[in-house]
TrEMBL record:
Top-rank taxon: Bacteria
GO BP, one annotated term: response to arsenic-containing substance
Keyword list, A-Z: Arsenical resistance
Keyword Phosphoprotein among record annotations: no
Domain Phosphotyrosine protein phosphatase I: 79-204
PANTHER family found in the cross-reference section: ARSENATE REDUCTASE
Name of this protein: Protein-tyrosine-phosphatase
SUPFAM superfamilies named among the record's database cross-references: Phosphotyrosine protein phosphatases I
The UniProt record lists the keyword Cell division: no
InterPro entries in the cross-refs: Phosphatase-like_N, Ptyr_pPase, Ptyr_pPase_sf
SMART domains: LMWPc
Length: 212
């Protein structure tokens, strides 16, 4: 997808920020490749092109962080969990929100989808807001090999054979109703089930739950 002049400037600025963040870990060529392939992941389905460089930068930063972990260039010892569903718009986003809320900085969580949607489900956003957790700034994104390989635990939710499988990795499959197309009353029990499962997982990972 051709870049406008504003997008070119924004991508160049993003590349500079990433280069500063990963100085001594990755060179400019790797950073630019990850940034531009991340941009391409969103370019075909982004509703507002203005935000494409920002989304690309955020996703590239996650992917580069994962790659550094996979290649043994950076590892702080914190457990990392990847939540996967089909559209990365409801279940996996709620799980990500609860995990980050309860774990704080003691663990890392990412999310992705086998067929990423256009936006996070507004009803899921509303349901989480009732619990004081804001997931409105999140965005559906695909999973990539380095992100899966960097995770200690991969939690799948309804993506079936489309979910990635790497030998020797811990997998959990959570059977949860899909909140897509459902109202708030129907999504609340799904949300609460997600939280219970997240708290159980954190306990199994021996992560101390952050006190509100």
């Amino acid at each position: 997808m051709p870049h406008t002049l504003d997008q070119q400037v924004a991508l160049a600025t993003a590349a500079s920020r990433l280069a500063a963040d990963f100085e001594g870990t990755f060179g400019a060529e790797t950073i630019e490749r990850f940034l531009h392939t991340s941009y391409d992941q969103f370019a075909g389905r982004a509703a507002v092109a203005t935000f494409l460089p920002l989304l690309a930068e955020r996703f590239a930063r996650q992917r580069l962080t994962a790659l550094a972990r996979v290649e043994g260039l950076s590892h702080d010892g914190r457990p990392t969990v990847l939540f996967l569903c089909v559209h990365n718009a409801g279940r996996s986003q709620m799980a990500l929100g609860f995990f980050r809320y309860h774990a704080g900085d003691a663990a890392i969580a990412w999310s992705g989808g086998s067929e990423p949607g256009d936006q996070v489900n507004p009803v899921a956003v509303a349901a989480m807001a009732e619990r004081g957790i804001d997931i409105s700034a999140e965005y559906p994104k695909p999973w990539t090999d380095e992100v899966v390989r960097a995770a200690d635990v991969v939690v799948t939710m309804g993506c079936g054979d489309a979910c990635p499988v790497f030998p020797g990795k811990r997998y959990e499959d959570w059977s949860l109703d899909d909140p897509a197309g459902q109202g708030l009353d129907a999504v609340r029990p799904i949300r609460d089930d997600v939280e219970r499962r997240v708290l159980t997982l954190l306990d199994e990972l021996q992560v101390t739950v952050r006190q509100p």
